[in-house]
Amino acid sequence: MVDLASVVRPGDGIICGQACAEPQTLLEALVAQRARLAGARLFLGASYSGIIKPEHADHLRLCSYGAIGQVRVLAQAGVLEILPVPYSQLGGLIRSGKIGCDVVMLQVSPPNSRGEYSMGLAADYLLPAIDTARVVAAEVNDQVPWTHGERVLRKEDFSLMVQSSRPPATLPAPKRTGREEAIGTHAAAWVPEGATLEFGIGALPDAVCAFLKDHRRLAVHSGTVGDGVVNLGVERIECAMLIGSRRLFDFARENAALRLRSSEYTHNAKVLSGIERFAAINSAVEVDLGGQVNSEVAHGNYVGAVGGAPDFARAASQSPGGVSIIMIPSSRIVERLSGPVTVGRSDAGIIVTEKGAADLRGCSLRERQIRLQKIAT
Predict the structure, then answer these.
(1) Distance CA 203, CA 153 (A)
(2) Which of 189, 202, 373 is nearest to 285 (CA)?
(3) Which of 56, 243, 254, 284 is the most exposed place for a label (fewest CB within 10 A)?
């Protein structure tokens, strides 16, 4: 096993790739050697590998922008510090040192013929982390596709490199239920022709893709994309990370139409302001009768994140011909939110359930309540 103590110091701030981009071999080494690195602070994103467990907080300080995937277990165990900020702020917080980054742990693809390693499955806040870190530790996984992006890396960029051959963590698209198909159908009806699409994390946003096959001239500008984009027929995809299955990874391999970008670009307000017909498609924990959205807390437990929803919902509401769509089961429309307000009612757009859609744009609070009650349980 790689000796992390050769480059990592006790008390270091560590940022690692998230979701399908988790450097699993490096993370396994970190938890195995954590006693030698006591006080190290590990910043996590979404996790589907489950490598980091509550008992590892005995020597590691764990922090995340949310509780997505297996990170939820850490939150429920009370060992995770939550940083409740929009995704657009993460790059700046890393560069300023507010999120400590002495070490960044990456999963990258094998090099191409020019000796260039790609970011593989995520660029997001890893690119600001690379610029900031004292140490760049890379897991070169030969099962990770070479993908196009705004930056490539070379061997000399790495302070530590380990070779691996293992399936990346995956999040396959679940089989859709009748309710999810109804929600997807209703949501797709609000997406304009020629739209540039954004998809939030989760089954519902990804499911919309199946109902957009008759739309033309679509593009994608998103924090994440999932398996649904494979058959969407778009000519351009810009995103911060890929979250899906091997099917998505194979689609992304050397695909010149797909480009991984830093979250400082994908979530940047100035960039988003220049996109016409921007359709932001997100899900939520609950929506109240005034149009406020909670994407973070359910039944007193932190289960989601602020994420990119506030950034994208506001951009879509201001985009010429654009639309913000929040997809949610009808039972999750409530009189009052049980958690924080993630997206304010001032940015309310279209709320979609399996019973239909409520267009809240330009509506008074009384009219919003009437429209939302029609699509609630």
Answers:
(1) 32
(2) 202
(3) 254
Q: Topology of domain 4-164, per CATH?
A: Glutaconate Coenzyme A-transferase (3.40.1080)
Q: Which residues contact 202 (CB under 8 A, 6 or more apart)?
A: 283
The three-class DSSP label of residue 31 is helix
Q: What is the pTM of this model?
A: 0.96
Residue whose token pair is 């201001």: 318
Report the largest interatomic distance among the alpha carbons of the chain, rounded to a whole angstrom.
63
pLDDT at 1 over 80: no
Distance CA 302, CA 74 (A): 10
Answer whether residue 173 shows pLDDT above 80: no
The residues pairing with 219 across neighbouring beta strands, listed in sequence order, are 196
Of the pLDDT bands very low, low, confident and very high (cuts 50, 70, 90), residue 206 is confident
pLDDT value of residue 213: 86
Q: What is the pLDDT of residues 69-114, one digit of tens each?
A: 999 999 999 999 999 999 999 999 999 999 999 999 999 999 999 9
Q: Are 341 and 294 in contact (CB under 8 A)?
A: yes
Beta-carbon contacts of 160 under 8 Å, excluding residues fewer than 6 positions away, are 2, 4, 6, 7, 135, 136, 137, 138
CB 251 within 8 A of CB 230: yes
- Indicate the class that CATH gives domain 178-374: alpha beta
- Whose tokens are 């963590």? That residue is 169
What pLDDT, on a 0 to 100 scale, did the predictor assign at position 189?
96
Give the C-alpha separation, 59 to 34, whole Å.
Answer: 6
Q: Rounded CA gap, 316 and 372, in Å?
A: 20
Segments of the chain assigned to CATH 3.40.1080.10:
4-164, 178-374
**DSSP class per residue in 221-262:** EEEEE-GGGGGT--S-EEEEEE-S-HHHHHHHTT-TTEEE-B
Which residues are 160's β-sheet partners? 137
Find where tokens 């690692």 sit: 16
pLDDT tens by residue, 271-310: 999 999 999 999 999 999 999 999 999 999 999 999 999 9
CA 94 to each of CA 310, 342, 361: distance values in angstroms, whole numbers, following the listed order: 20, 22, 36
